[in-house]
Each structure stands twice: as structure tokens, then as C-alpha cells.
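The instructor's notes for this session suggest beginning with a concrete chain rather than abstract definitions. Hand out the sequence below and ask the class to guess, before any prediction is shown, which regions might be ordered.
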Amino acid sequence: MSLNRVMIIGNLGADPELRRLEGGVAVANLSVATNDVYQPKDGQRTAAEWHRVVVFGKLAETCCQYLRKGRQVFVEGRLRTRSFVSPRDGGSHERTEIIATRVTFLGGSDLAAGTEDAPPTENVS
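After discussion, reveal the predicted structure:
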């Protein structure tokens, strides 16, 4: 038996990026920061951990419609590590991503950015 499940609460570091696969399926990329607070002898410090989140289908479209940089989200999904060749340097790289199955929008609406109130929870169908 095995389990591959991730849950994070963090803030978006940028607006979601939407693209479409060849079959027309929507894919959104989110950059989410979580904070780790630790207490060294000289005072309290915070370190940010950045997570790459990939969202598919209707959920991806909803995220791009309602989410903006700075918005707090709860993301639930699974980890995936993939290998790829960089078009910049031709080198082989690995990237670990969270494949989201659920995204909950936290922190209220972003009325200053001109968006409507977002639904509180969106799940992959």
C-alpha cells in the first residue's frame, strides 16, 4: 500500500498561467509560497518554500478566472516528479510539482482587482 497526498496553504506568488493541451484541455500553473517560521537564538525568522502547482480542466479555468497574485489558497493533490530537457541550455532537469485535485480559495474576494467573489471550493470532476 502507498499514499501520495499533499496539502498546503499558501499565497500565490504570481497570477495563474493558463494554457491548453493539444486536445483543448485547460492547464493552469500556480506558484504557491508557504512560510516556515523558526526561532534562532537571535530572533524569529521566516523562510518561504515555493511550490509548483498544476491544475487541469474546469478547475484550471476557474483558478485563472478568480485567483490573483497574493491570494491565499488551500491546495490538495499528489506529488509528481518529471524529467525534461531545457530548451535554454539543453540540460536534463527534474521538477517536482503538485498535481491539484482540489483548490479552495481563502482570504475573501479580491474586489480591488475587479474580480467577483470566487466559489469557496473547486474540485476535479
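Then share the key points. Residues 6-123 form a domain with the OB fold (Dihydrolipoamide Acetyltransferase, E2P) fold (CATH 2.40.50.140). The beta strands are 6-12, 17-20, 26-38, 45-56, 72-85, 92-105, 121-123.
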